[in-house]
Amino acid sequence: MKILISADMEGATGVTWPADVLPGTPQWERCRSMFTSDVNAAALGFYDGGADEVLVNEAHWSMRNLLLEHMDERVQMLTGKHKSLSMVEGIQHGDVDAVAFVGYHTGAGTEGVLAHTYLANSITGVWLNGARASEGLLNAHVAAEYGVPVVLVTGDDLTCVDAEGYAPDARKVAVKDYVSRYAAVCRTPARTAADIRAAAKAATVLAGRREPATGSAFTVELEFDAEHLAAAATVVPGVAASGERRVAYTSATMYEGIRTFKAVTTIVSAAVEEQYG
Questions:
Q1: Which of 56, 111, 247, 272 has its CB surrounded by the most CB atoms within 10 Å?
Q2: DSSP one-letter string for 171-186
Q3: How far is CA 273 from the centre of its chain?
Q4: Which residue has the higher pLDDT, 274 or 171?
């Protein structure tokens, strides 16, 4: 049994504001250990449940945040940027039996601690086939195309609610409760590690490849906080204006959809000006 852990940081234990997740800040350095604790706890739980292999894919910002030296010696970690499937890289090789979303968060324009979708503040909303879309929802559809179930989701309490929509059977662990975008009631790392480990162990019974999802086209619509960002996004082939500060595109598969999404957000981030956005 091989488990992939997609590890994001905004939903990690103790994280509540931007400096906690921005590489190079003192707060980020402090929160790295709590992030690592969450991910390691998930890995230990999967091993407790009978997993033979756990691959951790770093999915936050620079994708160089976790402390490898503090992970269980059996874990392998995929670290660094420029990966074909970004947050769920590794799922496409046919040997993954389940995926866990650890440290996830809610989507742009919704309530939740550090809520966003890919870009920290330029995207004000994302819709997939008309439904509000978080990173979890987008990545779950990619996983489904490879027949891989989402078996564990951790983050704030609203992230767990969001996950009910795309992975109803998955085990969920809230490591903190939402108060505002930059405030939460947080559990201690000792408590969250125990909770995550127990949930991951229980989640292993859900592992097992499924019939790959096929036949659905995916329309993705994005809304930005400035019109010039929408214009920049239309440089990507197939992406067209769909309304004020909005663009949309349709992909035959979610593999294509997430790669186009990555291209759009890369171009848009380069078009953001420091003061005016």
A1: 56
A2: EEEEEEEEEETTEEEE
A3: 26
A4: 171
